[in-house]
Each structure stands twice: as structure tokens, then as C-alpha cells.
From TrEMBL:
Similarity comment: Belongs to the thymidylate kinase family.
Alphabetized InterPro entries for the sequence: P-loop_NTPase, Thymidylate_kin-like_dom, Thymidylate_kin_CS, Thymidylate_kinase
PANTHER family linked: THYMIDYLATE KINASE, UMP-CMP KINASE 2, MITOCHONDRIAL
Thymidylate kinase-like domain boundaries: 5-193
Enzyme class: transferase
Reactions listed under catalytic activity: dTMP + ATP = dTDP + ADP
Entry's Gene Ontology molecular function annotations: ATP binding; dTMP kinase activity
Record protein name field: Thymidylate kinase
GO cellular component: cytosol
A GO BP annotation: dTTP biosynthetic process
Alphabetical keyword list: ATP-binding, Kinase, Nucleotide biosynthesis, Nucleotide-binding, Transferase
Length: 199
């Protein structure tokens, strides 16, 4: 089973994923916990470039999109697909939906570009995706408390509003795969709500 977790910054993805990890471990399942961009040594190197604040040169939106997919291709072939083939549960902190939300809805890149990448480089989409949704201000406050802001976290509220609407669009189009969770609840409530979809 392939499960991904999505949402804007600071909505509590990490806490929910940890709860899922413990849940599956308690059931005696083989669980792989991974993240994007990243999840392999090479993909983590790409992540560092993507998140770094570079004052010398701004990253073009196309470069950002292609690096996300370069990291994803590596992650899929090295980690996700082999784990699924071995019958493991894969829990992934962000996946291709983030590219739609951030690079298309947020940055304004065309859906045609994304579709081309997904059709050619994403062999497997998650079986279920949890979208942790909360008003942007709530998450940004939590992100700020965590310390220095990365290149994405430095974006303005209006950018994250667009990202959030991107997730809402996927949710509308693929309600069977993507489940919306009210991330303003306590972490226990969010976990319970998520679990209700796993039955
Ligand atoms: P992450 O570490 O999950 O951020 P956070 O913990 O702050 O939620 O992800 C890093 C950043 O990468 C995040 O700001 C979203 C961005 N991102 C994209 O823009 N496109 C993508 O396809 C992915 C996977 C992530």
C-alpha cells in the first residue's frame, strides 16, 4: 500500500505520519517512511538545492519543476517501487500532488507540463492521499516557530493560498484517492479522522 500525505507548511504532516508509522508497526507490517523531495541520498542532494535560499541567482519555475521530478524519478526507482513490490507499506511525506499544488497552482506553470511529467515518469500514484487542510496563517505560524525559513517558506501568504486551492482542486477531481482532513483539530482527532478512511 502506498499512502501519501499532503498540505501546506506547518499543518502537522510529520506528526500524522509518525502515528501512521507506529500504527502499521504495531500491526507487524513492514513500513517504509520516506519523503519528497528526497528519500534517497541523491534525491536528498537535489532537495538541498531546491530548499536553499540562493541570493546570487533565483531558480526558474521550470528548473524547480524539473528538479522535483528528477528527485521523484530517483525516489520511485530506488525506494518506492521496490518497497511496494516487496509488499511493504510506503508512507510518503508529499508526492506528485505537491507538484500540482506548488508548481502549477502556486507558481502558475501549465498543467500540460505537469501531465507530461506524470504520464512519463510517475508509474504509480498513491492508493490513498491525506490532505491536511488548515487556514494558511495557522500553518505559517507553526513553520515560523521552527526557525529559519527555507526558500518555499519565505513565500507570501498569497502563494500559499494558491497552493491550498491547488490541493482543493485535486480533492474535487479525485475524491476517492484524496481525503481531506481538518488539520485545525488535535493530532489525535486528525489521526482518528484519517483512520476512518482506512477501513
Ligand atoms: P517539506 O519538507 O514537506 O516542507 P514542510 O515540512 O515545510 O511542509 O517539503 C519541502 C518543500 O518542497 C515544501 O515547501 C513544498 C515543496 N514541494 C514542492 O514545491 N513541490 C513538490 O513536488 C514537493 C514534493 C515539495
Amino acid at each position: 500500500m502506498f499512502i501519501s500525505f499532503e498540505g501546506t507548511e506547518g499543518v502537522g504532516k510529520t506528526t500524522l505520519i509518525r502515528k501512521f508509522y507506529e500504527h502499521f508497526q504495531a500491526l507487524g507490517k513492514d513500513v517504509v517512511l520516506t519523503r519528497e523531495p528526497g528519500g534517497t541520498p541523491l534525491a536528498e542532494q537535489i532537495r538541498s538545492i531546491l530548499l536553499a535560499v540562493n541570493h546570487e541567482e533565483s531558480m526558474s519555475h521550470d528548473t524547480e519543476l524539473l528538479m522535483m521530478y528528477a528527485a521523484r524519478a530517483q525516489h520511485l526507482t530506488q525506494v518506492i517501487l521496490p518497497a511496494l513490490a516487496e509488499g511493504k507499506v510506503v508512507l510518503c511525506d508529499r508526492f506528485a500532488d505537491s507538484s500540482f499544488a506548488y508548481q502549477c497552482a502556486g507558481r502558475g506553470l501549465s498543467k500540460t507540463k505537469l501531465k507530461l511529467l506524470n504520464e512519463n515518469f510517475v508509474e504509480k500514484m498513491p492508493d490513498i492521499t491525506f490532505w491536511l487542510d488548515a487556514p494558511i496563517e495557522v500553518g505559517m505560524e507553526r513553520a515560523r516557530e521552527r526557525g529559519a525559513l527555507d526558500r518555499f517558506e519565505q513565500e507570501k501568504i498569497t502563494f500559499f493560498e494558491k497552493v491550498r486551492s491547488g490541493f482543493a482542486e485535486i480533492h474535487l477531481q479525485e475524491p476517492d484517492r484524496m481525503k481531506r482532513l481538518d488539520a485545525t483539530q488535535t493530532s489525535e482527532q486528525v489521526f482518528e479522522e484519517a483512520m476512518s478512511y482506512m477501513l
